[in-house]
Design brief:
Blueprint lengths: L3 H4 L12 E6 L9 E9 L2 E5 L9 E7 L6 E12 L6 E7 L5 H6 L11
Length: about 120
C-alpha cells in the first residue's frame, strides 16, 4: 500500500515564524466572515492549516498570506483537499491554484536556494 507521502508533489516545510493567514470561501457567503488560521505546514502547491470547525473537501477558498519581513500580502486561491480531526483538533489541507492571482509569487518562493523567510 502506498503512503500519503508518496502522493505529494512537493515536500512540506514548517511555515516561517510569524506567518499570517486569512481565509474565506470563494465566493464568500453573505453572512460569512474571514477566518484567521494557524498555518501548520507549507509546500509549493499547498498548505496545512488548523481549522476551527469542519469544512467540506472540494470547497473553493480565497486566502491572504503575509510572510514575516515582507510587506507584500499574497492573494491566493485554492481548494480544500481534505479535512479531519486527529486528536480532536480540526485540520485541513489546501491545494493551491497557482495559476490565479499571486500564485506565481508564492511558487517562486520555493525555487532552489530560496528561503521562505527571505523576501
Amino acid at each position: 500500500m502506498s503512503s500519503q507521502q508518496e502522493h505529494r508533489h512537493h515536500p512540506r516545510r514548517d511555515p516561517p515564524r510569524g506567518v499570517s493567514l486569512t481565509l474565506r470561501r470563494d465566493p464568500p457567503a453573505a453572512d460569512e466572515e474571514s477566518l484567521h488560521l494557524l498555518c501548520r505546514d507549507v509546500s509549493r502547491t499547498g498548505l496545512g492549516v488548523a481549522f476551527p470547525h469542519s469544512i467540506t473537501p472540494d470547497t473553493d477558498v480565497e486566502l491572504w498570506i503575509t510572510l514575516p519581513g515582507d510587506e507584500r500580502r499574497l492573494h491566493l486561491y485554492g481548494t480544500i483537499a481534505w479535512c479531519a480531526a486527529p486528536l480532536g483538533q480540526w485540520r485541513a489541507g489546501i491545494a493551491l491554484n497557482l495559476e490565479r492571482s499571486d500564485g506565481r509569487f508564492w511558487s517562486a518562493r520555493f525555487d532552489q536556494d530560496h528561503d521562505l523567510d527571505e523576501h
